[in-house]
Specification:
With about 325 residues, the protein is an alpha/beta fold. The chain is about 35% helix and about 15% strand. It has a domain at about 1-170 and about 215-245 and about 290-305: Rossmann fold (3-Layer(aba) Sandwich). It has a seven-stranded parallel β-sheet, with helices on both faces. Strand 4, helix 3 and strand 5 form a beta-alpha-beta unit. Helix 3 (about 85-105) packs parallel to helix 4. The longest helix has 22 residues, at about 85-105.
Length: about 325
């Protein structure tokens, strides 16, 4: 039995799909479905039980589910504009500590979602090192930073796997609203107006729309997580905190043009002022260092899957966004 928190969310439901692809359906999905369309992410998926986060903690205390094979902890409050730091700390830090302590006490693999946002403005680079040296720019990033530090200071990097996701996009993100990827937002904008709005640059080092991100297709992301899980269940070659990105930085202009191309349209990009509240926390550049991950994968004979941006966007748009059933 595998526990998957956030299993009805974007990356979580894609991970559930990936587990199902391997014939694994004995999964406890831990999540809240809310009043949006997140429930659709579970349609067609195989899992054993759906529990709320509170019910799951109580079940662990009472040993309701028996011995777990692993805990994959992707559940979190992911709104980068959330200002209630106490709320974020409770949901993203303290809850994570409780699950990690259970996994460590019972000697089972523990994988958790960190975030590239902990790198802050990137002045200290995007290589995994001492989290204490990083400077997150918002409360969400701080909540992820706190748990990464807890793992490091507890000295359990060889017993857990932290996954620092970069800019993930793809099917099953439709419930995320303002936190959905720019691929999805661009698709909707083009359908409504024929244009895509991108932020003007606020830095002399970047032109309008030339700010860069490491965009990774969700199918590639969960493929990497699958290899990490298998490693954690066997030789633990893939452990500690690792980046989940492509290792290639692309511009927002590249991304928008890829969406237009997937729709067979000429690009029409409009640059708009960046909101004042975003300026202090905006990352002009992110790019995951992936060489260390590739070396670890090589030890178990695996080559990391990387779908080029244009191909990934085309697949997402044509196979999902233009489909009557958009979900994995």
């Amino acid at each position: 039995m595998i526990a998957l928190t956030g299993g009805a969310g974007f990356i979580g439901s894609a991970m559930l799909w990936r587990l199902n692809q391997e014939g694994i359906g004995d999964v406890i999905v831990v999540d809240r479905l809310g009043s949006e369309q997140k429930w659709k992410n579970l349609v067609g998926k195989r899992f054993a039980y759906l529990a709320s986060p509170e019910e799951f903690l109580l079940a662990l205390e009472r040993n309701t589910f028996g011995t777990l094979e692993a805990i994959i902890h992707f559940g979190a409050r992911t709104d980068t504009t959330e200002r209630n730091a106490d709320f974020l700390v409770e949901n993203n830090y303290r809850y994570s500590v409780r699950l990690a302590e259970y996994a460590l006490d019972h000697g089972i693999p523990f994988l958790y979602a960190s975030s590239a946002s902990v790198y802050g403005d990137g002045q200290r680079g995007y290589s995994v090192g001492q989290t204490l040296d990083l400077r997150p720019l918002n409360a969400y990033a701080m909540s992820k930073y706190l748990f990464d530090r807890w793992v490091e200071e507890r000295g359990v990097l060889d017993r857990v796997a932290g996954l620092r996701f970069f800019n993930v996009f793809g099917p099953n993100e439709y419930h995320k609203g303002t936190m959905a990827s720019m691929v999805y937002k661009s698709f909707l904008q083009i359908q409504r107006t024929g244009k895509v709005h991108l932020f003007e640059s606020t830095s002399p080092d970047f032109g309008d729309g030339e700010q860069k991100r490491d965009f990774i297709y969700v199918l590639d992301a969960v493929e990497l997580v699958w290899h990490v899980l298998r490693s954690q269940q066997t030789e633990r070659t893939l452990s500690g905190i690792v980046n989940v990105g492509t290792g290639v930085a692309r511009t927002w202009n590249d991304l928008a043009r890829a969406v237009f191309a997937a729709l067979g349209r000429d690009p029409a990009i409009v640059y708009i002022p960046m909101p004042d509240e975003l300026r202090p926390q905006y990352q002009n550049y992110t790019c995951a260092e992936m060489e260390s991950v590739d070396r670890m994968l090589a030890t178990i004979g695996i080559e990391r899957k990387v779908t080029p941006l244009e191909d990934a966007v085309e697949d997402y748009v044509r196979r999902f966004l233009l489909s009557s059933w958009q979900y994995l």
